[in-house]
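Dear colleague,

Thank you for sharing your sequence with our group. We've completed the structure prediction you requested, and as agreed, I am returning the results in plain text so they can be pasted directly into your records. Please verify that the sequence below matches your submission; if there's any discrepancy, let me know and we will rerun it promptly.
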Amino acid sequence: QVQLVESGGGSVQSGGSLRLSCLASGYYYSSYCMAWFRQGPGKEREGVALIDSDGSIIYADSVKGRFSISQNNAKNTLYLQMNTLKPEDTAMYYCAAKRGSCVGTWTYWGQGTQVTVSS
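Please find the predicted structure tokens below.
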């Protein structure tokens, strides 16, 4: 059974920082593509950042220079360091995973963790 459990969300003021964590279990973590998505109020879900099994990283333009994705394979944990947060970053943040390539449908999802940024 593959499980992804996010944590670290909360409420911060504009300009603040948060670090999200995603604990993965039930599979060989380092062979998977991992990503963070978010869905703000009244918005569609969007990709925030992903990290491929070879370590390649891609960020959405809206978070480049402010967010950083990383993983600790020994702890089976994916992170998202979010700095200089803006009100428009307010959303439910989800961890996702899929085996192999990052292209295609994402197979596994966490339950989400809420991030709220006030101005």
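Summary note from our side: DSSP finds no helices and eleven strands in the chain.

Kind regards,
the structure core
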